[in-house]
Every structure is written in structure tokens, then in C-alpha cells.
């Protein structure tokens, strides 16, 4: 009798473990952006020039040029969206292999971002190995930028060296977004000096004036949130294409749930009271969303969609969900610097009924 009881207890444990690991829902912990120190004033900064010529071809050559020159070569964008930094994003997403976003301010190209494998990102190439980059690129732990009469020095930490390099050319700066697992280039962002300083993606010291932060109105922030949500979906599919995964289609119900959840996370963080948030299963059930499998990634404190998706891609659990072939739909909601992305697998009959 005792042996039978032991066997029953053992089988119960096995079933519990199987249920846990075979759950149709994967809900990951919230990923927080790496924290940079507040900009520090310094008196002894000097401009360091490496005399590295800016690329002679590719998307970086448009930095500082009139937007009409860009349009002559790339045509009208598929979407024009606001940012939290005073410029517009011109989004080209008709082909994920040529995915590109151009930052436009006062009729001038101030930055260009791409994760498209077919885009000319000279002197770099999406998918290029880190070893190849190091062979022909000057990489430093500190990059000095002069803007007006002020000098700014960005310091890269160890995790930046592994995930997000900063390369200086003559008047153009390249942020290289790396896949830490495969040690390859996932995306590149070329910017002018002002844009880099406003983004503050690395620890910063400065001599002179610190550029003031842009504070969008509440109505503009709502549009920025919607733009970031769309860009997260775009970049999810671009990154999935890198790994030969099928693209996900947007599920509007999931987007609404994700948006509400991002707002709830923000409220929880700023509230003096303890607020318990419903799990993904309850939120989907309450919204009567039918699914075979579901997953969720959340993130906070990333300054835009490109930074957020790159962060998820370099976090093991979030990466698994982002690139999983178990899902065929997604929904994204953004509230300020709070991001929620829901992943679903729905059968065609379930999708039509919602």
C-alpha cells in the first residue's frame, strides 16, 4: 500500500512538472533597459578626432542632406510617424528585407535606421560577423562628439561592447546593434551629433551645455505610442526574417489588451500602493480571445521601438518568444516607455470569429 502511495505521489509530481513546462502560455518577466548614469558635467573634455572619413555610399550618405534628395532615391514613405525627440520617422516597410526608417527634422535627414538585410548600410552589412566588423572598424570605449561649442563624451560599458557599439565617422555616428548570441550585426542606426546627444544611449559626460529634453504634449505622446507599437510589429517581423521565421499578423484585440497592460504597468510603477496585475491568461479570457498558444514580452525604459526589440532579442526568454514559430499573430501596446507585446497562435476559424 505504501509503495502504491509513493507511486501515486511520484506520478502527481511528474504531471505537475509536465503541465508547468508544457503550458500553452509563456509570460516573461518585464525587461528593463540598461540604466545609464545621469549626464555628468566635466571641465577637462577635449575633442578627439580620429579623422575617419564618412562612408562614400549607402544610407549614411544622406545624413545632413535635404529630405527631397532622399525621396528622389527612396520614394514616398509607407508611413510618417512622430517621435519623442522632435523629428519624424519616415517608415519604409513594404519589404522587410529592405526595411528602413529615416529620421527627418526641418526638411533634413538627421538619422537613418535599418535592419534590412538587402539595405546598403555601408561600410557595414546586416548579418555581418562581429569579427569582420573589428577587422576594418576603429572601436573605442569612449567616443567624443562636438556640437556647437559643447563637447560630449559617450562611454561604452562592457555590455555595450557586446550588444551596441558606437562608431565615429566625420560628422556621422553609427550605432551597431549586435546579436550577442550569434555575434552578428542585427541593425545599424546612423545619426548626426544632435540626435545622438538627445537619445543618450550610453553614459555621458559633457563640457558646455546639455541639450534640454523634449517633452511632447499628451495628444502627441499618444500618437508617438501608436507609432512605436507599429514599429515594434515591423521590427519583430524583420528580426524573424533574419532567422527564417514566418511573419506575424496583427491581432487588434491583442493590441488593445497590450495597450491596457502597458498603462497598468506604468500605474503600478508610479503608485505608492501595491497593485497586482492580472496575468495574461486572465486578460485574454476576459477579452474573450480564443487561442491555441499565447506568449508575452514586456519592457520598460527603452527610448524607442528599435531599442526595445533589440533588448528583447538579446534576452534569452524574450528572444525565444519573439522568434518562436509557435505563434502566427501579435499585438503591441505602448504607453510612454512601457511596452507590451502579446503573441498568439490562432487557428483560421478562431481568427475569423473575433
Principal-axis shape equals globular
- The CATH level-2 architecture of the largest domain is identified as 3-Layer(aba) Sandwich
Strand order of the largest sheet: 4-5-6-7-12-11-10
- CATH C-level class of the largest domain is Alpha Beta
Distance between the amino and carboxyl termini: 52 Å
Radius of gyration: 22 Å
Task: Explain this structure.
- The structure is a single chain.
- By secondary structure, the protein is of the alpha+beta class.
- The chain has two domains: 23-35 and 217-345, CAP (Pathogenesis-related Protein p14a); 40-207, CAP (Pathogenesis-related Protein p14a, 3-Layer(aba) Sandwich), CATH 3.40.33.
- It is built from eleven helices and 17 strands.
- It has helices at 2-21, 67-74, 130-136, 158-163, 193-199, 218-242, 252-270, 280-286, 305-313, 316-323, 348-352; strands spanning 25-27, 31-32, 40-41, 79-82, 88-92, 100-105, 108-114, 142-147, 150-155, 164-168, 173-179, 184-191, 203-207, 249-250, 293-300, 329-335, 338-345.
- The strands form three sheets. It has a seven-stranded antiparallel β-sheet with strand order 4-5-6-7-12-11-10, sandwiched between helices. Strands 1, 2, 14, 15, 16 and 17 form a six-stranded mixed β-sheet that branches. The chain has a four-stranded mixed β-sheet with strand order 3-13-9-8, covered by helices on one side.
- β16 and β17 form a beta hairpin.
- Mean pLDDT is 91; it is low at 13-21.
